[in-house]
Each structure stands twice: as structure tokens, then as C-alpha cells.
Amino acid sequence: MIRRWVRVLLFMFACGLLVTGCKSYKEQEKELPDTYKRGTIRVSADESFKPIIDAQAQVYESNHPGTKIIVDYKPEADCLRDMLVDSVRMVIATRKPSAVEKEAVSDSLKVGVEDLVVARDAVAVIVNPQSEDSFFTMKEIKAILQGNFNKNLIPVFDGVKATSTIRFIIDSILHGDTLTGKAVAARSSEEVIEYIARTPGAVGFIGVSWVGNKDDAAQLGFLKKVKMANIESAHLPGKYVLPYQVNIYDRNYPMVRDLVYILKESHKGLGHGFGDFMAGERGQLIFKRAYLMPVLRDFILRKAELRDDGL
Fold first, then answer.
1. Measured distance CA(25)–CA(50) in Å, rounded
2. What is the CATH number of domain 38-120+257-294?
3. Rounded distance, CA 122 to CA 28, Å?
4. What is the pLDDT along the chain (311 residues), one digit of tens a residue?
5. Domain 121-256 is of which CATH architecture?
6. pTM for the complete prediction?
7. Where in the chain is the domain with CATH 3.40.190.10?
């Protein structure tokens, strides 16, 4: 009989602990500065990803009306420096942080760093619609970047330093060689488009999310001002390709890069919610519909012949 009462008391004690734990969790959640359903966070994002990150944030906020994601678009180097800024919860860039950068954040802010590749995009090459040159090998692209091309074509970027596009070009195309002093620095990807639209002798380098989505009215407007150049395939010499999804997927297009989010959040808050959304099915579909390549969902891509309609 005594043993039975002991078991009953232990059961009641366990239930009491469970109820107390649930209450304390709810109370703790109320004390958090934000959760995935409410609050405001700041994000520093590479400027070349502006169209797609705007779309992701807009859909997330519409699904969670109590949230606000404030995105500041900057050159990539500035975004990566913002990892050490306490008020910035997330950074979106084209590379993961190094072990040294993670350690600096941990030592300075006393918070861990998480990162995840959620999509891939490409560096698109754009030219004036009247340009005679719209097919390039990577050898010719390098010659343009170094000022050695047989025609006086001027490379144009979203800044001459500190941007993800410049870093990709220096690291992956020039392999540390010097960029021509004739390069033109525009203040944004949109200004690169405008410069190319009025300058037949210029060649622009921008993220494909600015000009790759033919279902987007703004990008259709851009594609009436400029056209994307065809680049020789990385796998099939003599074949020229555009930065379409299937060519990004199999890296047939030779200038492919990652889209990475870097999260520094001490609790499961809005930053985790937004990161999980981009990694989840809806966020991955948004990347797909924007003609980037989602990497965390197995969406079927089919090869298709696309006609040149002059856009």
C-alpha cells in the first residue's frame, strides 16, 4: 500500500514539473525580443541579391504579419564586417565565414555562428542591344577584364572593390591578376544596367537575379535596355550558354556562385525563422521561380530550347 502511494506521489510530482516547465517556457518566450512569428531584425545583404532577398522577406512578412525584416544592401565586404555588429542578426553573402571570422564573432559578441548555402546564382554578362559582341569565351572575358581584348570594351561593375562580383572576378577569373584601370564603378547593379544601356562599348557584370527572371516586370524592363551575353560552356567547348537555371545547376555556365546566409542569434528567434523559411520548401520555390538554383529541395529541371525573341 505504501509503495502504491509512493508511486502516485512520484507521478503527481512529475506532472507538476511538466506543467511548471510548460508555463516557464511560455513565459520565457514572451520575454524574448523576437520569435519567428513576431519582432524586428536587421539583415545585411549583398547588393547583387536585392531582387530575390526582397521577394523572400516580403513573402515571409506576409505570412507572419507581426514580423519586420529590415534589409540593408551593401557591398559584400561591408556585410561580412557586419558580423561583428551586434544589431545585425543575419548576413547574406556569396561565401561562408572563415573559422577566424566565426571565432571573432564568438569572442566579441558571445554568440555562435551558423551558415547555410540555400541557393546558387551566376554572374551575368550584359551588353548594349546594339553591341556586335555578345558571345564570349572565358579567355575573352579575362582579356576584357585586363584591358587586353582586341576591341576597346570597358568592363562595368557595381563598385571597383569590396563587392561580391569583384571578389568573384578577382578570385575565380583573374586568379589574382590585375583588373584594368579602365573599369567603371557604378553605385549599384541597377546603375550598371543603365550605364550599359547607353554605352555600346561597355560590358557589365551583375548578379543574374537582376536580369534572369523573365516573369518579373521590372526585369523585363531591364532586358529591353540590355541583353545577356552568351558565354562558352564550361563543359562543352564551342557551345555558348546563358545563365539559365539548368546551366547553373550543372555548372555548364562557367560563372556560378553560392548564396549563403550567416546567422548569429543567441535564441530561436526571427533570424532562425527567416533562415528556416529560405531553406524550406516555400523559400526554395521562391528561388526557383526567380530563376536561381535552389540547393535544398529536389525540384525537377528539364532542358528546353529557348528562342531568341530579342529581349
1. 37
2. 3.40.190.10
3. 43
4. 555 554 545 555 555 545 545 545 455 566 788 999 999 999 999 999 999 999 999 999 999 999 999 999 999 999 999 999 999 999 999 999 999 999 999 999 999 999 999 999 999 999 999 999 999 999 999 999 999 998 889 999 987 678 999 999 999 999 989 998 899 999 999 999 999 999 999 999 999 999 988 888 889 999 999 999 999 999 999 999 999 999 999 999 999 999 999 999 999 999 999 999 999 999 999 999 999 999 998 766 555 444 555 44
5. 3-Layer(aba) Sandwich (3.40)
6. 0.85
7. 38-120+257-294, 121-256
